């Protein structure tokens, strides 16, 4: 009988390699006159590109270009970044944080400050002890209002929430803590009660065989990044199945295998999402090219989709021209294979199209800032529902004593929202509310001076904003950005 011996590899060997060759992060303000270069040189690992992009986008930095190379188990990535006003990064505390955060994600077991890796995974004022309510199901008017009403009735305090809708499906993550009696954490019996009542709400208008899910994620210090988790929830819900694909007739993209994009959007002259997949015989990689409208956090969303599909980005070039973003990825599967079958290509195409579309919001944007209190989310969403407005996206959190949120709403009848309705909503909600039209072709605006005054007139909330709200110089200049 033949006996086969396999070599023993110490599980600490990979950590030893990183100890001998620790990651190097260089922040260069000299090479280019109009941007800062963030250069990373490190041992490669699946998912590290996403984590690096996550660090930069959570700080609401603009990534105008990026060059990625990770052959041979080693990566050398370059990001061209600016702040929201298009200026270089000159604040030393911000530069130090970028260095520390990127090095920390590479040296998880050696990190000196464990909090760095996990701070950006949750909104500020949400601790690791908060329970995360995760929901996916059919999108319908009043769904978020009904869920928040149940939580308020049960005495649960909502600390933050993020919700997306796409192709008739909805996903949201709500961070909650128990009542004053329970404290921050929930005991298992109470958590089961909360879940049961939320399931009743979600199932109320679903057909018997329709997909839906309600889950309470237990408190955990290493909880998945909120926005990445939303991508995972919607992908598991198969929202990408509804994305439009076409296999012919694109004069600008010769040799296209498949590309995504809605015909209705193209007829209206809007920039759709186009995905081109080819095979490079010389290198053995699959080349995935994505052209879409530029918008905030686009790079994060695309890399997130590829990472969760278990593809490794070996090389990439990302740039933008005007309102259009161009991304070219040379990828292989984690197993080393390339995209060979049409089924694989179609799935990757659909998933990339869905990833770029989920965050895009339409309708009216309501920026709300008011004094925080228990049951506030329930009251705000009830006012929107009672006035015939459907929530298509939301991002809510706490800043000091105030609750700050952004709601994207549409009229449930499909008609244009009546100005009188908006005035009623403004009066009933109270606090400060700013109303903006959201154009699907408009590029994110930039602040041109007077940062503090603009911030007070147009309050904004984002997970990155909350993370750095304690730094006065940065919080006074937060605005929408491209990445």
UniProtKB/TrEMBL annotation:
Residues of the ACT domain: 37-115, 132-212, 365-449
Q: Which keywords does UniProt give here? A: Repeat
* Primary role: Binds amino acids.
Q: A Pfam family in this protein?
A: ACT
**Statement: the UniProt record of this protein carries the keyword Repeat:** yes
Q: Which domain of life is it from?
A: Eukaryota
**Could you identify this protein by its name?**
ACT domain-containing protein ACR
InterPro entries on file? ACR1-12 (IPR040217), ACT-like_dom_sf (IPR045865), ACT_dom (IPR002912)
Q: Does the keyword Repeat apply?
A: yes
Q: Name one GO molecular function term.
A: amino acid binding
Q: Kindly give the CDD domains that the UniProt entry links to this protein.
A: ACT_ACR_1, ACT_ACR_3
Q: Which PANTHER family match?
A: ACT DOMAIN-CONTAINING PROTEIN ACR1, ACT DOMAIN-CONTAINING PROTEIN ACR4-RELATED
